[in-house]
Amino acid sequence: MSSLMRYNNYTHDPESRCNCTPPYNPIYSIAARYDLLDSKGSYDLPKMVRRAVGATDMKLTNNAMFKSLEFIAINGPTFHPDGSVLPPFQWSTSGFQDLHDGHPDKWMFGPTYHRWGSCPNL
């Protein structure tokens, strides 16, 4: 399920094909990444421009974990571990001028397990 929720293989996924130049779009995937849009590309919607926007995390639980207030999360835009399909997002190489104080430069994190301390309203 984690792989599905972080899926983005836009250059080979038929669901990411579009009437665009280039003929595919990284935001038409489950884990969208606007930063991967070609800055010289022509896209089928007017607001499709390269920017620091997209799927920023994934959270996953199941019935047993939910009852114990547990979940697994992965922080940051999706990437492929070896960078062959999708590189990790990196501020210093992105060309973006957005403020990002307190952010890491490279968003390349694995899954982490979380358990909430207590929730008196459940």
From TrEMBL:
Alphabetized Gene3D superfamilies for the sequence: 3.60.60.30
GO molecular-function terms, A-Z: phospholipase activity
Enzyme class: hydrolase
Keyword Glycoprotein carried by entry: yes
UniProt keyword ATP-binding present: no
Gene Ontology biological process terms in this record: lipid catabolic process
EC nos: 3.1.1.-
InterPro entries: PLipase_B-like (IPR007000)
Keywords: Glycoprotein, Hydrolase, Lipid degradation, Lipid metabolism, Signal
Job description of the protein: Putative phospholipase.
Family: Belongs to the phospholipase B-like family.
The protein's name in its UniProt record: Phospholipase B-like
Organism: Ixodes scapularis (Black-legged tick)
